[in-house]
Structure formats: structure tokens, C-alpha cells
Amino acid sequence: MFKVFLSPGEKGCQKVRELKAIAVVVDALRASATIIALLEKGIETIFVVSEVEDAWELKKSFPEALLVGERNNLKIDGFDYSNSPSEIFSAPNLNGKSVIFTSTSGARRILACKGATKVFVGTTLNAEFLSSVLRENSLKHQKDIVIIPAGVYEKEDFSEEDVVASWEIAKRIGFPVIDETGFLTEEIKNREVEKNFYLSKHGRELLEIGLEKDVKICAQVGIAQTIPEVYQFTEKAAVIKNSLEKV
Q1: Which of 27, 112, 117, 215 is the residue whose CA sits 20 to 30 A from 204?
Q2: Which CATH superfamily is domain 4-241 in?
Q3: Residue 26: phi, psi to the nearest 5?
């Protein structure tokens, strides 16, 4: 039987590349949820880039694309939307458009998974559907699964809410789970997801700047049937579509 590793941050990205595993990047507050929201709202293609400068450069090639992203929890100057699922869900007329997306941590982790057999984006919102897709892909490609709690780029290996969301996915797959974070106690596993998110360091930061609506949306479990998948890596971007619609 194949294994599911919960392997955080850069360590997880490295493990994915070494094993050529099935990868899942989990940035629970908020990149994973924002990417899911974009696809749910009818966005066809998301170009994920690591740097703000790369977003503006790519915009020259795709002038009609919307710019979505944040740095240090705040919308980037000149961008159309922040990295905010509540903002995206309430936005009008996104159907059929493209997006160029960047975020502090999640975007960089996605790009660092280049070399994996498959790369998906997940969180609590799509945990039910994603777990089935991961199991099928693991068996099809004969590869282990590495779920990467994104953490805070260049600061923290993992964030509490990312590990919680990763567990919500992992426990549904049906394979043995190897937790390399050291964070998952029985108390945390048994506590309500929303409470875990509210108690997390990042969750408290978002609450303090008035973004409780985002935290509430991000903590919901199994409400989305969208499976974001990287289907192409270009020189500076990971190109994401809904796995269920891209063929």
C-alpha cells in the first residue's frame, strides 16, 4: 500500500521532487481557498507566479488576465483582487476569464513542486473530492502522496491551520499517514476545524485586520467539488485548471 506523507514547507517540496510523488499544496489561509474560489466562479486558467514582478511581466502577454494576490495578508497595489476567497466569491463576471495569481507562501510552494508526477492544490474545502482523486492517482501512477502544509515562506516550516487542513485530506484517503510535522496531537485532530483555524497564529492575524469572513470560509469542510491541478509548468509560472474540466 502507498503512503501519505504530511511533509511541511520546503522539506515537503523536496520530498515530492525526490519521490516524484503525487503532490498536494495546502495553504489553508488563504491561497488554496482563493484558487478554489476562482475556479468555482468560472475562471478557466490560473497562472501562478512567485514574484509580483513576474505577475506584471506575464500581464504583458495576457493583458485581459485579472491580477489576484497579496503580500503579508494585504492586496498588492494595482491588482484587481486580493488573495481572498470571500472577495472572489462576491466578485461579478469572472466566468471564462484568466487570472495571474501570486501569494506570500502558497504560490511559491506550488512552483517548487515542479518534478512531481502530479501537483494539486487542496484544503478543507475540497477535502472530500480531492481525497478520492489522490487515491486514484496514487494507484494509477504507483506513487506515494505528499501533502505539503505550506507554512510561511522563509519564516516558518508550517502553519497550524495548514497541518489541520492537510490532515482533513489525508485521513480520507485510506492510506497510512506519516506525519512529519510533529504537530498533530489527538486534541487537535478531534477539535472542530474552525476552532483550530481561529486559534492558529495566522488565523488570529487575519481576525485582527478584519478578515474573519475569509477565516470562516476557509475553515469549511467538503463544500467544493473543484480540484485545482497544475497541468503545465512554464519558465516562471504554474498553470492551473480544474482537474475535472481540463480534458
Answers
A1: 112
A2: ComB-like (3.90.1560.10)
A3: -120, 105
Amino acid at 28: A
Where does residue 209 rank: exposed (0-12), middle (13-18), buried (19+ CB within 10 A)?
exposed
Rounded CA gap, 94 and 223, in Å? 20
Give the DSSP per-residue string, 190-225. Answer: HS-HHHHHHHSHHHHHHHHTT-HHHHHHHT--S---
Q: What is the pLDDT of residues 119-150, one digit of tens each?
A: 999 999 999 999 999 999 999 999 999 999 99
Given strand 118-121, what is the order of strands in its sheet? 74-75, 66-71, 98-102, 45-48, 238-242, 228-233, 118-121, 22-26, 145-149, 4-6, 177-179
Domain boundaries, the chain: 4-241
Q: What is the pLDDT of residue 246?
A: 44
